[in-house]
Amino acid sequence: MKLAFSTLGVPGLPLPEVTALATAHGYHGVELRAHPEEPVHPGLTAEQRADVAAGFEAAGLDVLGVAGYARVAAPGDDGPVLAEVRALVDLAGDIGAPFVRVLPGGGDEQGAEEADATAARRLGTAARYAADRGVRILLETHDSHRTGADAMRVLGLVGHRHVGALWDVMHTWLGGEQPVDSFAALSPHLGYVQVKDIASAEDPAPVALGAGVLPLADVVEVLSRHEWDGWLCWEYEQRWYADAAPLPGLLTPGREHLSRLLNESA
Fold this sequence. Notes:
- The radius of gyration is 17 Å and the shape is globular.
- The chain is of the alpha/beta class.
- The chain contains 9 helices and 8 strands.
């Protein structure tokens, strides 16, 4: 498995500093948070996109994915959501990222069946566009669809190879799902895995990998047992928790912890 970290952990950091951190601490790639307050977002010009791709290529790093905020199960018209997803797909295609992250975002006023159908319809439509750009759209286990079983209700309806799943291990655990069950549900569609650690179920503030309550060893064990060889991406939510310890000082210990889990599970 290859290791990456998300720029959610280094909010607003210029890309040359991001790539320097990744190479200095032994990571293979970076997930780029796509938001106007970040260096990479859909508003970039063609020249700026080319510069992003060139910077990562020069550093010998992969852009793992573009982490967008489109909410594909949200109530309302399809048009604005599809436009947002297509803009993220174009950005990913232009900078050489194989994946785009989207969120479910179903509303309280919907029933589960309606939210599932809405998300599946939009993802099915966007899949054809993503296929043309060589990009895969990943539905993250999050909010209204936080478990693997929840995500599978949508992905089973879509049935397109350019739509898959992003396993956020915190949300499946908070949803009461064991890693073995999450993997069983998501494995036919799994793009990559977001790892993290938190203080407790009641306090989701980010902590160093291995210092919290999430079952990371179980996650790595089930992935290894099934010979899954994709990406583990550390999503450290510094952007939402300003008092959390800065990520740069945790990157090497985090990589060492994940490597140790991988060795133990081999």
